[in-house]
Structure formats: structure tokens, C-alpha cells
Amino acid sequence: MKICWIGLGNMGLPMATHLHTAGHDVVGFDLSADARDAATAAGLRTAHSAAEAAENADVVVTMLPKGEHVKAALFEAEALRASAVDALVLDCSTISAEQAREIADAVTATGRRFLDAPVSGGTAGAQNGTLTFMVGGESADLDAARPLLETMGARIFHAGAVGAGQSAKMVNNMMLAMNMQSTCEAAVLAQRLGITPQTVIDIAGVSTGDSWALRNYYPVAGPVDAAPSNRNFTGGFSVALMRKDLDLALDAAAAHGVDTVATAEVARRLDNLVADGRGSLDFSSLIHLIDGTASSAGSTR
Ligand code: NAD
Asked: What is the pLDDT of residues 273-293, one digit of tens each?
């Protein structure tokens, strides 16, 4: 089976590497030469264009920032046209459910198959092969994709028809954003009260304040090895990408008449970080608006 992988960033590279290590014929492509070089260093074969990577591919995976990038790679850069006539297209990016349905319509109109399969678990989940996949699409297509998903993830949920995976992912990330904001506020207050980060995690992690953000992504360096706070907030899940996810959630909430006051506030704070030049840092750098090391001057929505 030939697999084309488009998007070799923080998530895409470790995910594609798992497929390669499992013995699949993976050819990767990324617009960034640095990302292609990192993939080559990791032992992956890379191509010079999306279409070249997709030539006769049985499976085309996209792991890209936004819906417009997925469309650009599949349609404008002609990865879809180059792939096998019955190829399965698997979009693991986080995009809107509407965009997923538009892409699915265009893919299936050519006789190919499409699943939206966004993920949760962060870069550590991608590296460890323990991601959660939330899949939208036909059961038969999910059955075909399952062995690949099991190579990269620990849990696979069939959320419903095309787009349902994205809707599930969107509400998950709303909660993640707010859990991170609350963890950052609590972390700074705890520090000022003289309680160590490890003590906060030990106690809240088995109490009612528990969350994934607390145990896996503590925003103060020290207790959680894999947390971006231990790497000066580099890598991980960028402020810009979380801001994008909250836009998806706010737009969907507006369309369905749902009051999302806390989501809107975290979105505003992420805007402040972007305005302060911190858009590429991990989103746990929300803590810098609380401890006073980032400017809260800029704001939009
Ligand atoms: P990233 O910015 O690290 O990587 C994206 C890559 O896509 C970049 O290397 C970029 O050069 C490449 N790219 C952009 N447009 C392209 C195109 N048209 N053709 C080829 N390559 C192109 O992003 P990431 O953190 O890997 O996230 C990817 C997706 O996964 C996003 O939708 C994000 O919301 C989602 N996600 C991220 C995380 C995380 O923790 N980082 C977790 C879950 C989901």
C-alpha cells in the first residue's frame, strides 16, 4: 500500500513516521523545505510536490493547519488527481465540519473516498502513537483506514457522517482551551501562595480540579517532562492553531445560538498573544498574560 502524507509539521511528521516504521511505503510532502529535511532525517521518503507524493497513492493523508490548506493541497496542487482512482483520502487536520463536507463532496465526485479524522493527544500523543481519532464518514471506509489509525493512535471513535469527527474535535478543543486558561490562572495563583507546581498536580490531579491540561501540559516548567513549558513554549500546539480552532467553535456556536462567553474570552486572550508576537508559541503560553510577562494590549474579537 502506498501512502502519501501531506503536512510534516509538529503532528504530521511523528504520525507519518509511525506508518513508515510499521512498514508502509510512505512518501511525504510539505511546502516547507525545513519540514522536508526533518522528514528525510527521520528516514521518510519525500517528494518535491503534493502531486508527486500522491502519484498512484492508495491513501492520501493531509495534516495541515486549516481547511484552505487541505483544499490547496488536494485540488490546486492536484494531489487528488494524481492518487489512485479509488484512493482513500484521510484528513487529520482540524478544520470546520462544513469544509470537511465540501472536500468530501469534491473527493467522492471523482470516485475516491473521504474520511475526516482529526486527532487529540498533542505532540506527545503523536510521538507515542497514542492519539485519539474522531472519525466522520462511511463505516466501510473507516474499516479500511482502521489498521493505519491503530498504528498512530490508541483510540478510534466513529462520530458519525462526514464532518462529525470535526464537530467532536471542535467541542473537545473548546474545553481544552478553557481548561488551559483555568490551569494557567490556578498555576500563577498557587505559585504566589507558595504551593509548588508538583503539589498542585499531585492534589488537583486526583481531585475535582483534574484535567488533561493539568496533568500533561502544566504551564510552569518542572513537573511534566513533555510539557512545552519545559521547552520555552516551543513546539506543541501553537497559539495561532488554537485561535483557529476557537474561531471554528465561535462560528458554529453563533450559527446555533449557543452562548460561549468563556470561549470568546480565551479567544480574545489568544489574540493578545498573537499581537504580542507569540502566535507560534505553544498555547499554554496563555500563562504569560496572567503572570504579566506578555502584553495584554492587543485585542480583536
Ligand atoms: P504545524 O504548523 O506544525 O504543521 C503544519 C505543516 O503544514 C507545516 O509544516 C506547513 O509547512 C505545512 N503546510 C501548510 N500548507 C501546506 C500545503 N498546502 N501543502 C503542504 N504542506 C503545507 O501544525 P501541527 O501542529 O502539525 O497541526 C496540524 C493540524 O493538526 C492543525 O489543523 C492542528 O489544529 C491539528 N492538531 C494539532 C495538535 C498539536 O498539538 N500540534 C493536536 C491536535 C490537532
From this structure: 999 999 999 999 999 999 999
